[in-house]
């Protein structure tokens, strides 16, 4: 447990490279340089939220490694949503791939990064950021309309330790299911929580282009399948990009 760190993912990555064991958890009260997807800054004030990173060393055989890496962020998002539900009775949903949302507001997210140690081989760091006890007016002005916290939704504070314990338990369960190659279960569990499916979306792709269409389904590799507005086109698989719900 750290009072302050630049990033729990950075701390966990260093520990992983030094040989830290599977299941090692790094927790911080505050992050001074928290990171989100695509290198974005994650607002991480002290004393209110949950910032933690978990080292995962168990992985399937090499021929399943790509599937494992593509699904790990999605099942981790399911674990976070389930933990919130168990602890608070709120029913968060997921915006593909791994944003945890309540209504149209973002409650949290996660970042998976890979590393390797000389002694114990490859590993993955799963970093979580969940807005727990912040007031809505404490968010930067740019985020107040798009972000929320558990306390803002419930109108009372939430015990962060209880939430952390639930999160780690759910993560163990869902990562275990992924290891056991229960692919259909992973797709079903994610799809049930995914607010993106069935909606018209705009996807800003990593090459600067964009695509609009209907979010149809989750593919076997965890990618988002979209029916483009150009009905002549077949399903398009999106493996990376920013999704905006249009309606």
Q: What are the defining features of this structure?
A:
single chain, 247 residues, alpha+beta, 6-stranded antiparallel sheet, 5-stranded antiparallel sheet, globular
Ordered list of secondary-structure elements with their pairings:
Layout: H1 8-17, E1 25-28, E2 50-56, H2 65-88, E3 93-95, E4 99-102, E5 105-117, E6 121-130, H3 150-154, H4 160-179, H5 183-193, E7 200-205, E8 210-218, E9 224-228, E10 236-238, E11 241-245
Antiparallel strand pairs: 1-2, 2-6, 3-4, 4-5, 5-6, 7-8, 7-11, 8-9, 9-10
Protein model, in words:
It is built from five helices and eleven strands; from the N terminus they run αββαββββαααβββββ. It is α+β, with helices and mostly antiparallel strands and 247 residues long. Strands 1-2-6-5-4-3 form a six-stranded antiparallel beta sheet, sandwiched between helices. The chain has a five-stranded antiparallel beta sheet with strand order 10-9-8-7-11. Strand 3 and strand 4 form a beta hairpin. Helix 2 packs antiparallel against helix 4 and helix 2 packs across helix 5. The protein starts with 7 loop residues before the first helix and ends with a strand. The mean pLDDT is 87.
Describe what is shown at a glance:
This protein has helices spanning 8-17, 65-88, 150-154, 160-179, 183-193; strands at residues 25-28, 50-56, 93-95, 99-102, 105-117, 121-130, 200-205, 210-218, 224-228, 236-238, 241-245. With 247 residues, the protein is an alpha+beta fold. A six-stranded antiparallel beta sheet has the order 1-2-6-5-4-3, with helices on both faces.
